[in-house]
Amino acid sequence: MEKLLAQLLHVDYVVEDDKPVIRMLMSDEKKRKVVVLDDTFEPYFYAIPAGTTNLDELAEKILNTKLPDSEGVIRPKRVETTTKIVGVEERTVLKIVCFLPSHVPKLREVVAMLNGVETIREFDILFHRRYMIDRGIEPMDWYEVEGNTISYDDYPCDLAIKLNNMKRLYRADEIFSMASFDVESVMEKNEMKLIMAGMYFNDGRARIATGIDVDGREFVERVSGERGIIEWFARTLKEEKPHFLITYNGDAFDLKLIKERASKLNVDLKFGKNTFLRFKRRGRTSQAEIEGVVHIDLYPFVSTIMASSLNTEVFTLEAVCQEILGEGKYEITWEEIEHSWKTKTNLEKIVDYNYRDVELTMKLAKALLPNVFSLASLTYMTPFEVARASYSQLVENFAIRKAYKMNYVVPNKPTVEEMDIRRQEESYEGAIVIEPKPGLHENIAVFDFRSLYPSIIITHNIDPYTINCSCCKAEEAYRVPNKPYWFCKKKRGFIPAILQELIEKRTEIKKKMKETKDELLKKVLDSRQQAMKTVANAFYGYLAFVGSRFYDKRCAESVTAFGRHYITMIAEMAKQHGFEVIYGDTDSIFLKVGEKSKEDVMQFLNEVNSKLPGIMELEFEGLYKRGLFVKRKSGEGGAKKRYALIDYEGNMVIRGFERVRRDWSKLARETQEKTLYYVLNGEVEKAVEYVKSVIERLKKGEVDKEELCIYTTITRGLDSYEQIGPHVAAAKKAVARGLEIKPGETIKYIITRGSGSISDRAELSVFAESYDPEYYIHHQVLPAAMRVLGVLGYTEDMILSGTKQTGLFQFTKKS
DNA sequence: GTGCCTCGGGG
DNA sequence: GTGTACGAGGCAC
């Protein structure tokens, strides 16, 4: 019998001898990789009987269900009766215990159709999560594990244990090892090929593998070609035994490439009898899973969960590291890498680039993993899942776990048909936007509601089961302003209850954070409260999300109605205090301070807060020296805030300006960036001059071809396009000239002079002999610049009038 | 306006 | 794996 202390990092299951076996990947105090196996947990789902049904008969009928299957007969293992809360009422329900998780989706179909069954529930809760929830086993927590050591050959671990007993320890330290991973590649004959791979370990070592000798870099390991790189990858993981492998976009690129090249070159990626690297499809993406290693891809986490708290609009490793870490990548272009590789010169530059990438990825992991881990503990999702989760999944899993504790069964997920119906429902009024006077403003005070929507849900008991209750009279309940809805004042809803608990726990943690002098504990507490904030803020969206288990349009509509009510109330109060309201959106309000003092601002804040009900609170965000405000297009519900601010220290805050995509030319992107920069520094004239100079350059034909290229990918055979976009047209012309263009290739094209549609004039940049200044002025440079200058009252004509008209010469030449 | 098509991250 | 899930923007029509 073995007894050890270990931290839980990942949970999955396998089927062995017709039994589901839960596998827990853990790290013990000596950083050993431990796998703990438990075959005592059973899959199940619930059937809710119709009111008048004879329970014993129904249970008997369910138990006798037999389904023919290729491997025999599928039947329930056991049927139990138990009491659960369904919606708002307590009911006796049947718990149908199955032999295997894969039997659940098959048996549930039959059971749902039986007479006497009203509905079935909780039939799609993943087995490993059900295990954690039911047994109260929390990811990232420490346990005293007791069991027998067994041999478990096909799994890369130091120790395997068959579980006897597990005791939770409530410890917050972390003892595990990590490696970051990144590959370099080049395009050769339309194929992406591996040229280098690197790992960086949390103890500061780096190992890089490549097929060519590189001088002066002692951490480089010489391997034999692509095959050698792939084998090195598998071998190094087995040698180093990291618990976590960290990538940035490894799901879609680095590990995908390893897998593709391995199958192309017939490299066996196995560990014993198990596949070492597998891809799991999930919607439009796939996830790279490595046997015995937790692969954390930071990119999906950054671009979905972190996105809203970052200023950057693009989620490149460079942009994200610049913002979070204040440092960036080693500068080298893609062309340089290809050139260097093909000519075998300056190879150490590629090594340095790879080294920097893995080093940065490790630094980013150290900064972000605390957030991932805190969300994992909160939702009982594994860190692997959290890294790839959407906000709705975080809320859903949090709710499922709370439901178990409170003896609720959760509602079912909608079917595809139900989702379609929900999508077709009329949209409802969203948040309020107090239209700004567009333009530049000086001396601005900004206020934000503290967790506006969560506090509204809690304060007014907003829940799909408390809406328009029959036990309260409308006017005695929580009335929704200007809507035919009210919420119960007698029974607490499940959603507000769990949200309130979450908010209260967060307040508690923040208090503890302030009290403690232990810096490590402070950090742990901070990431926990951050995770709670993340989940709390996603509840409103979850009520309105068509794929939600708790979808209720009326609830979502009520939340925004209360939001509008409170913001309007505060705007009124601001006016009474003599402030000019220059802008407001959802939960924030921007006031012109004018002649008033900061004391006046704070006094206003105090008065507002004394009038707000319950836990609702307005906070002072800051004072700004100058701000640029953009009028939103009318009728664009849900459009992003669009403004840019500069504070008294010169820091810029930019919100909502269009994301810069690669299907914009470099020229357009640069124009927008520079224009915004000049404007915020109060140099509007310079901004205008700059745009004019770009237009001049375009007209004079002085702009370099490279600045005008637009990049778009061909995703299918050229003949199968119904809609001929510019990239397709350019590709077709290239084919006519004898070029071969396959799906997956990126078309680099330019819009040339001539007649016809944009598509008619699109040419591959290599064939383009001219460019159409009119197109680049009106479809690229001006739209990009006008997003900034338009707000300042400039029209396209004003920008153009100062520049010379496109000469008659050019028109006559055309005709 | 609607519908089709592409991007994102990575090299 | 008890799962099968985007959301926004540009161009053609």
Short description:
With 815 residues, the chain is of the alpha+beta class. The chain is 39% helix and 25% strand.
Plain-language structure description:
This protein has 815 residues and is an alpha+beta fold. It is built from 24 helices and 34 strands. The strands form nine sheets. A seven-stranded antiparallel sheet has the order 23-27-28-24-29-30-31. The longest helix is centred in the middle third of the chain and has 33 residues, at 347-379. The model is unreliable at 634-640 and 804-815 (pLDDT under 50). It binds a DNA duplex (11 and 13 nucleotides) through helix 2, helix 3, strand 12, helix 5 and strand 19.
Average pLDDT level: 91
Number of DSSP strands? 34
What's the story with the biggest beta sheet? 7 strands, antiparallel
Task: Tell me the β content.
Answer: 15-25%
